Amino acid sequence: MYELGVIGLGHIGVPIVNGALSGKAVSADQVILYGHHPERLEPLLLVGASAAKSEIEVVSSCHYLLLSVKPQSLSELLPKIKPFLRPDHVIISIAAGISARYLKNALGEDTKIVLAMPNTPLQLGFGTTALSRIEPATQDEFAFAMRIFGVSGTAEEIPAELMNEVIALNGSSPAFFYRITQIFADRASQYGFDHETAMRLICGSMIGAAHMMLSSGTSLDDLIQAVCSKGGTTIAGLTAMNDAHLDQALIAGMEACTQRAYELGK
């Protein structure tokens, strides 16, 4: 019996497994995998993980089952695996918008579930994952899921009813940050900066600002004011952004992200 089975080895599934192995959250000989891209399997097999020939083989031979597939794929996958689930199985789902109720309707009311929303910086060990424990999953079982993701960054427990809302905060937010950076970098090139220099300046500032927000003990308002001086450049920039309705644009993006999560779960 394998400790962890994984169905789906895409751009997030492989890094989750890599992180879990390198962080020693689980040993390679306790992992069985199934995915549609053999080339992604090979590096994991070389370090000792096992490959299954089907989804059913994974389910039949593991304790924790990580579903790392697109939300749209679950309607076909869940009925296929349901007959092979045991009472001790723990389902870990990273499918955006897919609620515990959706999973229980498909797999059974007594199914043990952990909902997880990771993000792609997990690939570099800087991921942020939000998780929720759904009864009858136990605290010990939830702790295992937390370790799987926590070794590749940080893991936070949140209420299950906020799993759709959290997507804008950590699941999708890297893309939002990349877009903002892209705008800054493109404008910098128009000023005459080469792209690499602009990226080092922008990303270094983002990293430093993140540390200030997390570690300085200072409120966001005070951090903003600390950069501003009366009649100076920062106030001019913030005023122009406010006039261009930056707040409304970002809130609209968050709301659209959350709305789409609810649509995927129907």
Automatic annotation (TrEMBL):
Primary location recorded for the protein, binned into one broad class: cytoplasm
A Pfam match: F420_oxidored
Domain called Pyrroline-5-carboxylate reductase dimerisation: residue spans: 161-264
Keywords per UniProt: Amino-acid biosynthesis, Cytoplasm, NADP, Oxidoreductase, Proline biosynthesis
Name of the top EC class for this enzyme: oxidoreductase
Stored InterPro entries: 6-PGluconate_DH-like_C_sf, NAD(P)-bd_dom_sf, P5C_Rdtase_cat_N, P5CR-like_CS, P5CR_dimer, Pyrroline-COOH_reductase
EC number(s) from the headed UniProt entry: 1.5.1.2
Listed Gene3D superfamilies: NAD(P)-binding Rossmann-like Domain, ProC C-terminal domain-like
Limits of the Pyrroline-5-carboxylate reductase catalytic N-terminal domain: 4-97
Pathway note: Amino-acid biosynthesis; L-proline biosynthesis; L-proline from L-glutamate 5-semialdehyde: step 1/1
SUPFAM superfamilies: 6-phosphogluconate dehydrogenase C-terminal domain-like, NAD(P)-binding Rossmann-fold domains
Superkingdom of the organism of origin: Bacteria
Localization per Swiss-Prot or TrEMBL: Cytoplasm
Swiss-Prot/TrEMBL catalytic activity: L-proline + NAD(+) = (S)-1-pyrroline-5-carboxylate + NADH + 2 H(+); L-proline + NADP(+) = (S)-1-pyrroline-5-carboxylate + NADPH + 2 H(+)
Biological function: Catalyzes the reduction of 1-pyrroline-5-carboxylate (PCA) to L-proline.
PANTHER family to which the protein is assigned, alphabetical: PYRROLINE-5-CARBOXYLATE REDUCTASE (PTHR11645), PYRROLINE-5-CARBOXYLATE REDUCTASE 3 (PTHR11645:SF0)
Family: Belongs to the pyrroline-5-carboxylate reductase family.
Name of the protein described by the UniProt record: Pyrroline-5-carboxylate reductase
